[in-house]
Design goal:
The structure holds two protein chains of two kinds.
Chain A lengths: L2 E3 L4 E9 L6 H11 L9 E5 L3 E15 L2 E9 L7 H8 L4 E7 L5 H17 L9 E6 L13 H9 L6 E3 L8 H20 L4
Parallel strand pairs in A: 2-5, 2-6, 6-7, 7-8
Antiparallel strand pairs in A: 1-2, 3-4, 4-5
Chain B lengths: L2 H17 L3 H17 L6 H24 L8 H11 L3 H10 L3 H11 L6 H15 L2 H13 L5 H17 L41 E5 L9 E10 L2 E6 L4 H6 L5 E9 L2 E14 L9 E9 L1
Antiparallel strand pairs in B: 1-2, 1-4, 2-3, 3-6, 4-5, 5-6
Helix pairs in contact in B: 1-2, 2-3, 4-5, 5-6, 6-7, 7-8, 7-9, 8-9
Classes of the chains: A alpha/beta, B alpha+beta.
The structure holds guanosine-5'-triphosphate and magnesium ion (MG).
């Protein structure tokens, strides 16, 4: 849950990148760290295990400056995607204000995307949150691989698989190249701030 | 598509999946490629091609094993631990407990011990110390700790009783035949709510002694899988009972696991620790409806860890 300091007029909120193992969550964050120097307010911390897989989380603090007279700080996290780290995922998700669901466009990962979305839904539920209400954005990552002749799902198919009921904003992306990373994050921050505004009404 | 193009594209895919760390997917494609190659009658360098692919598969298997057995909770640097504390804990007790949740037991114990001095946190700190001792050492260590507290005067009788009622059921469930002495109640009637009073936050209960287990590896001691470890995802866990789904395609496995079977060599994988233990197959049922129809659901009860 966001921390709203009325006196200092400061809001600190939490955005989590979720998705199946190897879908590109960490790569998204790395790109943000490299490319948004002005917004980044601290080091990116990654706690990894064998083969560069996220073990606990990645963490990157950013600042959006003053919005309607309020200083907005955001903590970006990624969860570990590997199935076996389910309780760490839940721990990291605690108090989340906005979510980017990174889906893998590779055809071979179709089912893994769906399982991970389901996992997100049930973890949110355990915190008393509904996946239909939480600020959520989808990113269909690895679109660049189409050029290399690797079988990808079409955007339409991914929307059908993952977004038919949710109907949240979705963006194609290529985290390695950086395409779609910025718009995804921006859309998520917009949704998150809108929802925080409803809650705290700081912008009057 | 021309068969050689087909093979080429399969190998191309396999290579990319390998590079992205998608090892099972890569393996599938290598197998598919090698199946195709087998089908071609005469191919100039057939043998060397097949050999190259089988080498790739072998190296993938090694990598997969490495990922799966990779340290599940390495000791972090002090900086990493401080970060976890500040990011995930709001008060001192939560900060210490969060260290334990991320598997940083040694440091958690140090911080929890410091909290024993604080009347508000003492009982919860105590319970969590017990929990850490069980995770890093053994139940015996936890029992020793209790006895040590019993002979000291840090805790009131009432506070210790709260710890005893937390620890005793764990000991019982582990099948250890030890009864913890009930503390001689001190004259602390005035203080009866000492262990709940003052705690105005919702502190997560000290975790059950059985951690969340996400998957297990069963090493078979006889039958056609003798000596082999087969991994299963845990679909559901309730305390010490784990439910696994075995696909109908694994007919051999299903036949080999019978109700009442003792499984003496199980590797348990949990997000914060990996440990060995034993279990008993309690029920085996065929799923008759839904998408998993025909598969089997196996309940096993963890008997020791
Ligand atoms: N071609 C391509 N590769 C990508 C893209 N995004 C990520 N990858 C690759 O996919 C692999 C996994 O990326 P990570 O960012 O580590 O994935 P993750 O989601 O953090 O994985 P876990 O930490 O295990 O959950 C790496 O080899 C990346 O280089 C992309 O947009 N295009
Ligand atoms: Mg990662």
């Amino acid at each position: 849950m966001a921390i709203f300091n009325l006196k200092k007029r400061e809001i600190e909120c939490k955005v989590v990148y979720y998705g199946p193992g190897r879908c590109g969550k960490t790569t998204n964050l790395e790109y943000v760290f490299k490319s948004y120097k002005k917004q980044v307010t601290g080091e990116m911390v990654s706690i990894n295990t064998e083969g560069d897989r996220t073990l606990f989380f990645d963490f990157l603090p950013i600042g959006l400056g003053k919005i309607k007279g309020c200083d907005i700080r955001v903590q970006l996290y990624t969860v570990p995607g590997q199935v076996k780290y389910s309780s760490t995922r839940k721990l990291v998700l605690r108090g989340v204000d906005g979510i980017v669901f990174v889906a893998d466009s590779l055809e071979v990962r179709r089912e893994k995307n769906m399982i991970s979305l389901k996992d997100l839904q049930s973890n949110l539920k355990e915190y008393g949150k509904s996946i239909f209400k939480v600020p959520l954005i989808m990113q269909y990552n690895k679109r660049d691989l189409a050029d290399e002749g690797i079988p990808l799902m079409s955007i339409e198919q991914m929307d059908r698989d993952l977004n038919r009921q949710l109907k949240v904003p979705s963006f194609p992306g290529s985290a390695v190249k950086g395409t779609g990373v910025g718009v995804t994050l921006k859309a998520c921050l917009m949704e998150t701030l809108k929802s925080l505004q409803r809650e705290f009404k700081w912008a009057k | 598509m021309d068969i050689s193009l087909q093979i080429k594209s399969l190998l191309n895919e396999a290579e990319l999946y390998r590079a992205q760390g998608l090892f099972p997917e890569a393996k599938d494609k290598y197998h598919a490629a090698s199946d195709l190659i087998h089908k071609i009658g005469k191919l100039k360098n057939k043998d060397s091609l097949l050999k190259a692919i089988s080498d790739k598969i072998q190296s993938l298997e090694k990598k997969t094993a490495k990922v799966e057995t990779g340290p599940s909770s390495p000791e972090l640097s002090e900086k990493g631990q401080n970060l976890i504390k500040s990011l995930f804990g709001e008060n001192d007790l939560q900060k210490a407990v969060v260290l334990a949740k991320f598997g940083q037991f040694e440091r958690a114990v140090v911080e929890l011990e410091a909290l024993l001095k604080d009347d508000v946190y003492r009982v919860d700190a105590g319970k969590n110390i017990i929990r850490c001792k069980m995770a890093i050492a053994s139940v015996d260590d936890a029992i020793d700790q209790y006895h040590q507290w019993l002979s000291g005067d840090l805790f009131t009788g009432h506070q210790l009783e709260s710890i005893r009622t937390y620890l005793q059921p764990i000991i019982d469930r582990k099948g250890i035949d030890k009864i913890l002495p009930v503390p001689v109640s001190e004259k602390d009637e005035i203080n009866t709510d000492a262990d709940s009073g003052g705690i105005a936050f919702s502190m997560p209960e000290p975790e059950e002694e059985i951690l969340d287990i996400t998957s297990i590896g069963i090493t078979f001691t006889n039958g056609s899988h003798k000596g082999k470890m087969v991994e299963f995802d845990v679909n559901f866990q309730s305390g010490g009972t784990l439910s696994l789904i075995i696909s109908k395609n694994d007919k051999g496995l299903i036949d080999e696991l019978k109700e009442g079977d003792r499984l003496d060599d199980i590797q348990f994988y949990s997000p914060i620790a990996m440990f060995k233990g034993t279990a008993v197959v309690t029920t085996k049922t065929r799923i008759d409806t839904g998408p998993k129809r025909g598969d089997f659901c196996l309940d096993i009860k963890v008997t020791s860890t």
